[in-house]
Specification:
This protein is 43% helix and 19% strand. The protein contains five helices and five strands; from the N terminus they run E-H-E-H-E-E-E-H-H-H. Strands 1, 2, 3, 4 and 5 form a five-stranded mixed sheet that branches. Helix 1 crosses helix 5 and helix 4 crosses helix 5. The two termini are 24 Å apart. 34% of the residues are buried. The C terminus is likely disordered.
Amino acid sequence: MNKVKVIISNDQKEVPIPSGIRLLIRRCCHAVLEEEGFNDKAEVSVRFVDNETIHELNREYRNIDRPTDVLSFPLGENGVYDTDMTSGAKLLGDIVISVPKAVEQAQEYNHSLQREIGFLTVHSMLHLLGYDHEQGGIEEVRMREKEETVLTKIGVKRDNSYYMEGE
């Protein structure tokens, strides 16, 4: 697999970003592309925001008037992506994660914030690649299976924090 450039920005001040989260996000992005057999150079943007910002984005782009955990803004369709003419990278899109919502969900599901952010990143990367669970059924089952496969491969288990040997 070729290289993926992951641009991460923190546009919220409510929750300090734990050590290792940026590495985790990069590993999640790489693992999804590897699992999907995506062999081109790629670029993806990940933005941390607060609930107010994601609420505004959710209302503006999805007509849903409440905060959510993650939003995906794909730049491609049916496997066709814009290309950065300088680097040759396929521009996959943007991931927006509400860190306060991720904290809330980690507590609700009784797992680590690392697990929650890893899950949200993998989930959103699959959306950027064209997967959709909104209609339920077999597509939702396929997406959930892929999420767990990727998370398990990089060591983010259902009941564990993120870990890497040698860290």
